[in-house]
Design goal:
This protein has 215 residues and is mainly alpha-helical. It has two domains: 67 residues, no CATH class; 134 residues, Cytochrome c-like domain (Cytochrome Bc1 Complex, Chain D, domain 2, Orthogonal Bundle), CATH 1.10.760.10. The longest helix is centred in the N-terminal third of the chain and has 21 residues. It is globular, with a radius of gyration of 23 Å. It starts with a helix and ends in an 8-residue tail after the last helix. Bound molecules: heme C. The site of heme C (HEC) has 23 residues, from α7 and α8.
């Protein structure tokens, strides 16, 4: 029995070797096969659907393992910036207390969630950023956001403001690829992870002079 298996295995190995030498799959074919194998190992469950595996231009261009071409990077950034939905009524700010709660929470988007309502989601910001110094547990994939508003001279967020840093921060939170084509940061507004009101609260956490982040 064991000998039979060994013989079959040896024959198969030889056949694969011959096939490999004669017509090896191209790298594109291998990519396709890998993508198909990954797709086949997942299924829709609850709110978590297999369509999450579909890559858009930026994701595909940043997943090759090589450098992204300059013209592609520019297109990804332009499309990301054009996708930003600016806040209704020009109201950029909420309150930093809710902002801290959202920044701390890493939950949401799982198949056990009853609905895909964004208000159930957190931003998971501490996973990649230092923000309030009181929180000692944070990741360092992204830069420290401690004193984010203070360092940029923000002294008032109660009046409507056209300060470029306010626009930049909103757009970065809405779609991080607007400024870095291959950003590792989630695209909170664009991917419907957080809604407009939640992003306002985060804006206050980062920019409000009264927020503990800016003490
Ligand atoms: C998976 C990691 C990750 C998560 C989660 C994440 N970020 Fe980031 N963030 C980054 C990286 C990396 C950068 C550096 C620029 C880039 O590559 O996009 C960045 C940049 C930023 C910047 C720009 C900083 C500057 O000085 O220009 C801001 C603001 C920011 N993040 C805020 C947040 C907030 C608020 C959250 C949560 C709602 C968050 N980030 C969640 C990775 C992350």
């Amino acid at each position: 029995m064991n000998r039979n298996i060994a013989t079959i295995a040896a024959a198969l190995g030889a056949a694969l070797l011959v096939a490999g030498c004669a017509t090896g799959p191209t790298s594109a074919e291998l990519d396709q096969q890998a993508a198909a194998a990954i797709k086949a190992s997942f299924r829709d469950q609850g709110i978590a659907k297999v369509d999450r595996l579909n890559q858009d231009l930026g994701q595909a261009a940043c997943s090759t393992g090589g450098e992204i071409a300059d013209d592609v990077a520019e297109r990804v950034r332009d499309e990301a910036l054009a996708s930003v939905r600016w806040p209704t009524g020009g109201q950029y700010f909420g309150n930093w207390i809710d902002g801290e709660r959202i920044a701390q929470s890493g939950r949401g988007m799982t198949w056990t969630d009853a609905s895909a309502e964004t208000r159930n989601n957190g931003g998971n910001c501490y996973n990649c950023h230092q923000i309030d110094k009181k929180e000692l547990s944070y990741g360092t994939i992204g830069p420290s956001l401690w004193n984010y508003g203070k360092l940029r001279g923000i002294t008032d967020v109660t009046a409507p403001t056209a300060a470029p840093i306010v626009h930049y921060t909103w757009a970065k939170l809405w779609n991080s690829k607007a400024y870095a084509a291959c950003s590792n940061m989630p695209r909170f507004g664009h991917m419907k992870l957080l809604d407009e009101q939640q992003i306002r609260h985060i804006m206050s956490l980062l920019l409000d002079p009264r927020s503990p982040v800016n003490q």
